[in-house]
Each structure stands twice: as structure tokens, then as C-alpha cells.
Amino acid sequence: GGQPRNVQPFSDEDASIETMSHCSGFSDPASFTEDGPEVDEEATQEDLEYKLKGFIDLTLDKSAKTRQAALESLKSAFSSKILYEFIMERRMTLTDSIERCIKKGKSDEQCAAAGLACLLCVQMGSGIESEEIFKTLGPVLKKIICDGTASIQARQACATCLGICCFIVTDDITELYSTMECLENIFTKAYQRDRDTNGISSTHNTVLHISALLAWTLLLTICPMNEVKKKIEMHLHKLPSLLSCDDLSMRIAAGETLALLFELARETDADFFYEDMELLTEKLRALATDGNKHRAKVDKRKQRSVFRDVLRAVEERDFPTEMVKFGPERMYIDCWVKKQTYDTFKEILGSGMQYHLQSNDFLRNVFELGPPVMLDAATLKTMKISRFERHLYNSAAFKARTKARSKCRDKRADVGEFF
Q: Over the range 237-254, which residues count as b (16 or more CB within 10 Å of their CB) and which as e?
């Protein structure tokens, strides 16, 4: 390969240009300054696009290190901004670059390219253009997923990418079923992991099985009800075996998938009955109260928290509602289907999730948020508070917290009288 170029990555400063992410002024009125300098938005936008064009060119560089850096910079930009028009003009070039990097790159480059493919489809939404992208990349992703000689990390990234892109673009039911079958062929191997015929431990494949399972579960949420019934009959009796896996992430993925399957099963049939309910609830209760000393405390806390919710879902048909804030809006996650969808896109978008919930038409349609809320300058001004007011509020909160903690730590604190 050629000499690696000095690629200046897409920075937080670049992301802030016209960006209204979760840490920006649009979503956090408190971040507005009282007297900030005037910014030439048109000039900064041109500067940003010039940088992005450079990154797109560098995805064809001879140096693998340069290509990967360019892919990562494009990922940062796509997750933190809406760039629909810019991408629309260059979608074929971007698709070709991603395809080449997945086919010919090494593990890290393939992972970066797969991640960029996800973000490309998130930016384009569910339209003809995205379908063309998926028609090009779908077969390549499936080939890598099924290639036993490819790195586990690359196969894992491609499995996630395949599921997300299919979720976004597929109107063709046969393509949906074909993609789900590809993912099933991967994660069902985890059912027989302990019975490996070669006597070789395949625990290193666990991360691949988890990604395939979660991507398959995401696609299950958009399947017709008759297909959902078939999948539930096929997997509901086998999934509990994954709860005994040594890997915490696999146990959690299996538990949350079970909760989602029960939710879908009860939607399709109000009188749904599961034969091994007693055995399953016993296993879930054991995980929800796990106190094994050989496990890390952080892992135990996380496991107990997740499986308390899973147990409530299976036993009581209950879901602990969560609220997500973004800008002036609120979204309630009140079912496992919505949680699975939100968690998947948050994993891809990272800190840009709040911004995309505000501005991305596709995501707003997925979560039934309606058209983007447009706030005028007067409304934003009424929402903002001065830096001095924030300082006073934080100081008061800090003093109150310190007093409360000191009181609790003081041995002379009144702890009540006992008779």
C-alpha cells in the first residue's frame, strides 16, 4: 500500500456546525450564550462539505489506515448531522466505496464500512435510493456473514448492518424473509454450542451470534402476524437454552428477545399459553436474583436489573415505561418492540440519537413522532437561561447535596430511638 496520509478526522467542532445534537443549543436551551459571535452559516456549511468531499475521496486511498480514518470521519459526520442533499448527490460514489472496503479491506476497515452503510441508509430513509443501496450491499454483507474465514468482528458488524438496512428499506417481503433466514443460520448455532461435534469451544463466535440474534429480532418486529407466529413456534422453546450461556451479553440478549416474543405472542393471541412457563420463570428468577461470587459486581447488577424486567414481562405482562427527552419533546418507550428498535438505532447513532429523533423524518416515522417540531427564534429565546442563572442553580444543588451526604455520614446523626 501507499504511504498513509495525514487525515484530519471529523471533529466535534465540525459536528457543531448547524448541528442540533443532544449537546447543542437546539436541544439544550441552556447552552445558548448571551452574546456569542455571529456565524456565517453558509460559509461554515461549505467548509464542512469541502471536508466531507475530501473524506469520500480518501476512502479510495492506497493506504488502509487512511481509508479507515476517512470512513470513521464520515461516520461521525453522518451520525451528528442531517446531510440528505449532500449524500443524495454522492450516494452511488459512497455505495461503491463502502462495497470496495467491505470486499477488500481487513477487519477494522470492514467494520467501519459496515457502520457507514447503516448511517447512509438512516440518512436516506425508506426510499428508492436506499433500496438501490441495499440491492448493491445486501449480497456483499451476506457473503461476509457466512464466510467462516472472515474475522468475527467483520461478520458481527455486517450482521448488524444487514438487519438495520433491511429494516429501513425493505418493502419486498421475500427479501425480508431471506435476510431473516441468513441471520437465523448464524444465531441458531448458539443453540448447539455446547455440543460442538469437533470438541472445539466456539465461544469466540458468541459476539457474532448476539449481533445476528438482535438483528433478527429487530426484523421480527416488522413481520406479518402469521410469520411472527411461525417464528415464535420455531424459537420460543429453544431460546431459553441461551440463558445458561457464560457470556453476560448473550444472556441479556436472549432474555430481552424472550420478553419481546412473549409480547408479540400475546398480541397475536390473547389466550397464548406457554407449556414450560414454570421452568422458564424459575430460570429467569434465578438470573434476576443471581448472587454468584465469581461474577463481577457490575455484571451482576446489570443482569439483575434486566432480568427483573424480563421476568415481569413474562409473568405479569408488564413493561417499565421509560421516557426519552430530546429538545422540547418527550418520547415514552412503553413496550419491548419499541425498546428493541430504540436500542438498535441508539447503538448506531450514539450521541447523535437525540438530534436524529428531532430532525430525521425516517426515525420520527418509526417512532410515530410526526413531522419535526420547528422552533422560531423567539421561542428559543424564552427557553434559554443565562449562564449566571445556571451557575446559581448548580451551586445551590451542590450545597444541598453536600449537606445531605454529610448528615448521612455523621455518626451523631439522629437515627431514631429504640425501646
A: eebbebbebebbbbbbbb
Residue written as grid cell 448527490: 89
**pTM, rounded to two decimals:** 0.79
Give the C-alpha separation, 328 to 380, whole Å: 10
C-alpha distances (whole Å) from 136 to each of 53, 83, 100, 145, 153 are: 22, 21, 11, 15, 22
The x, y and z cell numbers of residue 271, run together, are: 389466550
Cell of 402: 453536600
Distance CA 108, CA 169 (A): 26
Number of H helices, E strands in the chain: 18, 2
Q: Which residues contact 195 (CB under 8 A, 6 or more apart)?
A: none
DSSP per-residue codes, 108-137: HHHHHHHHHHHHHHHHH-SSHHHHHHHHHH
Question: Which segments within 153-289 are labelled E, that is strand?
Answer: none
The whole-number pLDDT of residue 415 equals 47
Residue 126's region, left for phi above 0, alpha for psi from -120 to 50, else beta, is beta
Of residues 139 and 373, more confidence is placed in 139
CA dihedral 196, 202, 206, 211 (to 10 degrees): -80
